[in-house]
Amino acid sequence: MGTTTMRAVRVHAFGGPEQLVHEEVPRPVAGPGEVLVRVHAAGVNPVDWYGQRNFAALPEPLRPEWPLPYTPGSDVSGTIVETGAGVTGWRAGDEVFGLVRFPGRASAYAEYVVSPAGNLARKPAALGHTEAAAVPMAGLTAYQYVFEHVKVGEGDTVLVNGAAGGVGHFAVQLARAAGAGRVVAVASGRHEAFLLGLGADGFVDYTRTAAEEAVRGVDVLIDAVGGPDGHRLLPVMRPGGRIGAVFPGEYHAERAAAQGVSAGVWQVRPNGGQLAELARLADSGALRVAVEEVFPLAGAARAHARAERGHLQGKIVLDVAPAH
Q1: Does 163 score more than 60 pLDDT?
Q2: Which pTM value belongs to this model?
Q3: How many domains is the chain built from?
Q4: Alpha carbon 35 to chain centroid distance?
Q5: Rounded Cα distance, 324 and 315, in Å
Q6: Is 242 part of a structural domain of the chain?
């Protein structure tokens, strides 16, 4: 394999994880305002396995059209090897991580990826590339929900539903960083010690107790589960409460409004400045990163099969290439 090609994973036909093919493809070149990154690790996100199935899990109006073949992935951690025209602030050899081109097609399941310079931040010194690649999409989602959308305030009681997953475990920690007075995590029992160790004040094992029966007086609900049963959590909310649905959910708008509760769902966006803040928190020890399992790039099909089974503690990551 020469300098004009690389190994990557591509989807040639929609379907199950077996449609992910590890093969040789042309190596990209950085254009104006872009950098070429040698990928050391790539994070695996729900959008990646949704795309593999042509986004059948999403409501039809929200389904993007991705012509075949394509390379999945938008979360990367690696080293810059080339800068395009007009790029300042980055140079070859810089270690970076980022959410690349989302919601477009970034093609991060590959040995090299081209990224807009502004989508990246310096990799936290405290994290290896595997952990850093687990941060961008989930970390930025949690950050934007906590600080921009539902705006966790000083002393708020925050409930995080689906707290052990990628977004959830970051949301628990960022709610604490935002000054929440109490953070309650909802997950299955095996995650209790993990979430209490991240700073949760309370824990509800949903396999034993329904959160709506155990919790009251919630100012902010960050719901990383959503779905048609999201409305069952309305009783936990206090008047004026805010619900941030990471996945679309049914919250019975009229009933919620009668309770003085607002609900919204927002799409994450790349933001190098916010990634830099997440890096600062990681370097200070205020943000820990959980990785459930690591697969080689050639094992992307196995990674997707594991991801689709759910019940993760943190993220799944592809090990693309060791750092040099």
Answers
A1: yes
A2: 0.96
A3: 2
A4: 22
A5: 24
A6: yes
